[in-house]
Amino acid sequence: MIILKTDKEIEIMREAGRIVAECHAMLExxxxxxxxTMEIDRLVEEKIRSRGAVPSFKGHHGFTASICTAxxxxxxxxxxxxxxxxxxxxxxxxxxxxxxxFHGDSGWTYAVGNASKEIENLMNVCHHSLFxxxxxxxxxxxxxxxxxxxxxxxxxxxxxxxxxxxGHAIGRELWEEPVVPHYGSKGKGIRLKKGMxxxxxxxxxxxxxxxxxxxxxxxxxxxxxxxxxQYEHTVAITEDGPQILTVL
Length: 248
Description:
By secondary structure, the protein is α+β, with helices and mostly antiparallel strands. 29% of the residues lie in helices and 27% in strands. The chain contains 4 helices and 15 strands. Strands 8-7-9-14-15 form a 5-stranded antiparallel beta sheet.
């Protein structure tokens, strides 16, 4: 069932999103060689709780951490660990905050130290593809319009576009209907309506887009172990067009 949000509910979600954005602003200064994702997890949880919220992911379907990590060939849903990050790594940190009954959700990819030019280019294209998708998130458009622009742009550069994991609606529940594919056809799919709040989160790879899940039941990697990056915002569809909620 698709749940439309009121203006008041969107304002609460804006605050949840701001908390997530504050965490990512902290990570911009924190992520460097030698830091562990376990340290990042602890600091993010402390930050979220200091703002009167709780981590959305902790306990969600049995997930045990406050952040999802995705280093190098990991696509999504990885667990923090005690292995120090090294120069040249690329890592996505996905953060969710549950505040006054609603979730905010945003994942962001960070270069650790000096990224290769190849990885920098991939990051730039994926980042831009997110905003191309957001531009299509207005009432009257179709869900396929979002996916079409993301996929078309990624294909120009020959990147893999992950299809086995998608974006999603979000609200009182972290994962709500409908799903938000990052591929599709213009004019196809459900019609977007005012009050929808969507997590749009393209995941692009340097190689094959297909994945496999490790024995932990969570960690998804590219099938050919190629690098994957991801950028995600929580976006409300309003009378005035799409509004990004996961910003400062």
